Amino acid sequence: MQNEDPKTGSKLKPCPECGKPASGATLPFCSPRCRDVDLNRWLSGSYVIPGKETDPEDAE
User: Does residue 45 form part of some domain?
Assistant: First the structure.
């Protein structure tokens, strides 16, 4: 079945980009296009992990 993980047989989550069923070859995405869209967002800085502001005194 296409909506199951081939290794565990558990149900796959939908693609985080478009919501279509995920594909085994491009997990957790449905296609190489969605995988590349997500990678571009990481590389361009669209996804940011929030952190604590640094004090100028701590930088020295």
Answer: no
pLDDT at 23: 86
**pTM of the predicted model, to two decimals?**
0.64
Please state, in angstroms and rounded to a whole number, the distance separating the CA atoms of residues 20 and 33: 12
Binding residues: 15, 18, 30, 34
Instruction: Please tell me what DSSP assigns to residue 35.
Output: H
Domain range enclosing 28:
1-33
In angstroms, the CA 6 to CA 59 distance is 48
Residue numbers belonging to the annotated binding site for Zn(2+) = 15, 18, 30, 34
